[in-house]
Amino acid sequence: MKNKNVLVTGASRGIGRAIAIAFAEAGWSVGICCRHSAAELESLKKIIEAMGRRCFACLGDMGNYEEARAFVTGAADFLGPIDCLVNNAGISHIGLLSDMSPEEWNHIIQTNLTSVFNCCHGIIPGMVARQTGSIINISSVWGICGASCEAAYSASKGGINALTKALAKELAPSHISVNAIACGAIDTEMNRFLSEEEREQLIDEIPSCRMGRPEEVGRLALQLAGDHPYLTGQIITLDGAWI
């Protein structure tokens, strides 16, 4: 795993931060980005560099093609050829579909799904040229079964799952794996809107009797980034047997 390079989008906190740290601990150099949280991104960069790893940090909206392209090319120029891309950038939206504005819908789709296209579009040519690489998309169980009052989020994650399977077929001849991790209830800021009572009710529904930890997503992503090109096109559910 040493002397390899990974890009992690949406890395300033939560799952993305845990993924970046997991790769750095395993000896990878890391490219990280987020849209707004410059201080948190810089903090993560210092943690990675303190491990003796190189780190490229960039502020940018991965839902914007030009900004995503700038991140991918800038990271490759600084780190070298990219061996793994982890598409983690994403936002949630709670509310009835009928109450959503077109702008809110487009924002969810652009941030969660179009960002995956943008980053993959920039990274794939180099991987194909080298005939190796891995792409890992961070999805959700709601992309599999859907969630009431999270229709746009569910649609975006369902799109990621379908894109993962289709892209895996395109890239398999080039020995590039494409997989997704469909996360269940992970204990991050995205779920901090829950009251203590709602949190307890949610945990009661999970057979593993707890929420998942960001570090568990990080470890699974690291495993998928290994040299396993025949393991591809999979949507791996990480939810404690919840769904």
Strands, helices and their partners?
Layout: E1 5-8, H1 14-25, E2 29-34, H2 38-50, E3 55-59, H3 65-79, E4 84-87, H4 102-130, E5 133-140, H5 142-145, H6 151-171, E6 176-183, H7 196-205, H8 214-224, E7 235-238
Parallel strand pairs: 1-2, 1-4, 2-3, 4-5, 5-6, 6-7
What's the short version?
The protein is built from eight helices and seven strands, in the order βαβαβαβαβααβααβ.
Describe this structure in words.
The protein is α/β, with parallel strands linked by helices. It has one domain (5-236): NAD(P)-binding Rossmann-like Domain (Rossmann fold). Helix content is 47%, strand content 16%. The protein has 8 helices and 7 strands; from the N terminus they run βαβαβαβαβααβααβ. The protein has helices at residues 14-25, 38-50, 65-79, 102-130, 142-145, 151-171, 196-205, 214-224, and strands spanning 5-8, 29-34, 55-59, 84-87, 133-140, 176-183, 235-238. Strands 3-2-1-4-5-6-7 form a 7-stranded parallel β-sheet, with helices on both faces. The model has no long low-confidence stretch (mean pLDDT 96).
Question: Which keywords apply here?
Answer:
alpha/beta, 243 residues, 7-stranded parallel β-sheet, 16% strand, Rossmann fold, 8 helices, single chain
Would you tell me the structural class of the helices and strands? alpha/beta
Distance between the termini: 33 Å
- If helices are DSSP runs of H or I spanning 4 or more residues, what is the number of helices? 8
Spatial shape: globular
CATH superfamily: NAD(P)-binding Rossmann-like Domain
Which regions contain 5 or more consecutive residues with pLDDT less than 50? Answer: none
Mean pLDDT over all positions: 96
Largest sheet data: 7 strands, parallel
- CATH C-level class is Alpha Beta
CATH topology grouping? Rossmann fold
Helicity range of the residues? 40-55%
What's the CATH architecture name? 3-Layer(aba) Sandwich
Radius of gyration: 17 Å
| Strand count | 7
